[in-house]
């Protein structure tokens, strides 16, 4: 996860610069909540829920305590638990299989596509069994998963689709926004996300009114419904998000422009970029390259004050906490290859063209040095 102590000249995410842009108005919004003592499920929470539902093009939004809760609560709401299986990508963040395991169900990895980094629809059916209840596709790094193909398979097997949009705030596929592409959408507002809280936060989106009722109950102890937890989006965080949401489209556009500038500068180097499915608009939560020299490149960039990190390794089936599932090295070769090659470099809306050029020059220098070594 990013280190916000600014030991890097170029951090992956620059929250200081974001604060310079919106700090004044977010602090004012926080002050308003504090002055009114409206901390829990307050006015800002219901207003944010309305605004974010409208933004995603869905009927309902439920503000919750984190992206992990935004995955866990829909699973519980659909009655998924012990004896059930839920398909997750073999290459994703640990929160996905963890949210499944928290219900008592078994997370079953599915192979991913090397080009997109997301679930490979052509291999998805291999992961389906009689116990499968849901599929949890992830829009990795803000790159859209092939949701139409995934939904077609889900419909055929009568499975629920829990769309993990934690890394894809504001992305879209054929004009439809993330959060509207499954039975439910799950969002994280972790501070480094395309819009983030000043702490933890998350949201569930859905057109399913029954799910909406259940999820609202579960986030608030489960009063009157299935057993619940305490996981509400704090009013202070909702107030911050309400101030940031109007900037999201513009910030995402800047991220896309920055990605194009990087790609232009890095053309011809032995690095590969992820492809986005046709008719999708990615949001570059992270800018990630694939290279066989990943670890050496990270060491070099770090020595130059440029933050570079791995998102994510090891792949899900090789995580120690899921060793009991019985997978081995070789079970999901594409996920393993990606986990050994991916490297994230600085990406945020406040990066200037000259900064991208400087970071790219260092990457070029690294590869030139590789050639000149005996
Ligand atoms: C793909 C994905 N799913 C789930 C989560 C979990 O979100 P949170 O950290 O808010 O619990 C994240 C996190 O950051 C994520 O990247």
> Which residues form runs of ≥5 with pLDDT under 50?
none
Q: Going by CATH, what is the homologous superfamily of the largest domain?
A: Type I PLP-dependent aspartate aminotransferase-like (Major domain)
Major sheet summary line:
7 strands, mixed
Q: What's the CATH topology name of the largest domain?
A: Aspartate Aminotransferase, domain 2
Overall number of domains: 2
> Averaged pLDDT, please?
96
Strand content range? 5-15%
Kindly provide the name of the CATH class of the largest domain. Alpha Beta
Q: Indicate the CATH architecture of the largest domain.
A: 3-Layer(aba) Sandwich
Shape: globular
Layout: helices, strands, pairs:
Layout: H1 15-36, H2 43-56, E1 60-64, H3 67-77, E2 85-89, H4 95-102, E3 106-110, H5 121-124, E4 132-135, H6 147-156, E5 160-164, E6 172-173, E7 176-177, E8 184-188, E9 202-206, H7 209-219, H8 235-244, H9 248-266, E10 272-273, E11 280-281, E12 287-290, H10 294-303, H11 333-341, E13 342-345, H12 353-372
Parallel strand pairs: 2-3, 2-4, 4-5, 5-8
Antiparallel strand pairs: 1-9, 6-7, 6-11, 8-9, 10-12, 12-13
Helix pairs in contact: 1-8, 2-8, 3-4, 3-7, 9-12
Bound molecules: pyridoxal-5'-phosphate (PLP).
Protein model, in words:
It is a single chain. The protein contains twelve helices and 13 strands. By secondary structure, it is α/β, with parallel strands linked by helices. The protein folds into two domains: 16-245, Aspartate Aminotransferase, domain 2; 248-372, Aspartate Aminotransferase, domain 1. The strands form three sheets. Strands 1-9-8-5-4-2-3 form a seven-stranded mixed sheet, with helices on both faces. Strands 7-6-11 form a three-stranded antiparallel sheet, with no helix packed on it. It has a three-stranded antiparallel sheet with strand order 10-12-13. The longest helix is centred in the first third of the chain and has 22 residues, at 15-36. The chain is globular, with a radius of gyration of 20 Å. The relative contact order is 0.17. Pyridoxal-5'-phosphate binds next to helix 3 and helix 4.
């Amino acid at each position: 996860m990013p280190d916000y102590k600014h030991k890097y000249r170029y951090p992956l995410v620059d929250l200081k610069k974001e604060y310079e842009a919106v700090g004044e108005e977010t602090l004012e919004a926080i002050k308003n909540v504090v002055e009114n003592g409206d901390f829990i499920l307050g006015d800002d929470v219901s207003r944010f829920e309305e605004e974010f539902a409208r933004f995603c093009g869905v009927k309902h939004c439920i503000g919750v305590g984190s992206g992990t809760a935004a995955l866990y609560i829909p699973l519980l709401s659909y009655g998924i638990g012990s004896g059930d299986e839920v398909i997750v990508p073999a290459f994703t963040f640990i929160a996905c299989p963890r949210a499944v395991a928290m219900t008592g169900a078994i997370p079953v990895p599915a192979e991913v596509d090397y080009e997109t980094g997301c679930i490979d629809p052509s291999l998805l059916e291999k992961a389906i069994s009689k116990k499968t209840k849901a599929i949890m596709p992830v829009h990795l790094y803000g790159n859209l998963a092939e949701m139409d193909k995934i939904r077609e398979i889900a419909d055929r097997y009568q499975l629920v689709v829990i769309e993990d949009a934690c890394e894809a705030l504001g992305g879209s596929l054929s004009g439809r926004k993330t959060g509207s592409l499954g039975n439910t959408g799950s969002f994280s507002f972790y501070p480094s996300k395309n819009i983030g809280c000043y702490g933890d936060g998350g949201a569930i989106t859905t057109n399913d009114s029954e799910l909406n009722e259940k999820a609202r109950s579960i986030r608030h102890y489960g009063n009157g419904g299935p057993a619940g937890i305490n996981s509400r989006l704090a009013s202070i965080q909702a107030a911050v998000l309400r101030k940031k949401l109007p900037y999201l489209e513009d910030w995402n556009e800047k991220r896309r422009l920055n990605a194009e500038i990087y790609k232009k500068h890095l053309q011809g180097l032995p690095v590969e970029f992820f492809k986005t499915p046709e008719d999708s608009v990615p949001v570059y939560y992270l800018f990630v390259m694939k290279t066989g020299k990943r670890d050496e490149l990270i060491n070099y960039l770090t020595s130059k004050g440029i933050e570079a990190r791995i998102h994510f390794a090891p792949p899900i089936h090789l995580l120690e906490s899921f060793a009991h599932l019985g997978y081995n090295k070789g079970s999901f070769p594409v996920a393993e290859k990606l986990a050994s090659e991916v490297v994230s470099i600085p990406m945020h809306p406040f990066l200037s063209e000259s900064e991208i050029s400087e970071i790219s020059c260092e990457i070029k220098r690294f590869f030139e040095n590789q050639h000149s070594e005996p």
